[in-house]
Amino acid sequence: MESILNFIEANQQILYIVILMIFVGIEVIGRVPSVLHTPLMSGANAIHGVVIIGAIIVMGNAEESNYLAKILGFLAVVLGTLNVVGGFVVTDRMLEMFKKKK
Fold first, then answer.
1. Residue burial 66-95, b: 16+ Cβ < 10 Å; e: rest
2. What is the pTM of this model?
3. Structural domain of residue 93, as residue ranges?
4. I need a labelling partner for 78 at 20 to 30 A (CA). Which of 37, 56, 86, 88 fits?
5. Do 12 and 57 have their domain in common?
6. Residues 20, 51: one domain?
7. What is the pLDDT of residues 63-100, one digit of tens each?
């Protein structure tokens, strides 16, 4: 318990920033009109490309004996890829709704 309190005390400013980011993010997303959700989703999916690149870098720089970093990096690559592909599929389906039918 003492180690947790020491961690919180050492990283107090970072924790305040993360909590503030959560509230700002909720307010920003909550005030976005429905028409803009599709482009916003596409942008969020593109950001996950950065997650994939970061995970590849972590896996490449991991020591040979550090299996935890390799496993977590691999999971991040797989889940990030699924999120990017799935997000663009959903975005494409949503855009199909607005096309004129023949």
1. eeeebeebeebbeebeebbeebeeebeeee
2. 0.56
3. 35-102
4. 37
5. no
6. no
7. 989 899 889 889 989 988 888 888 788 777 877 877 77
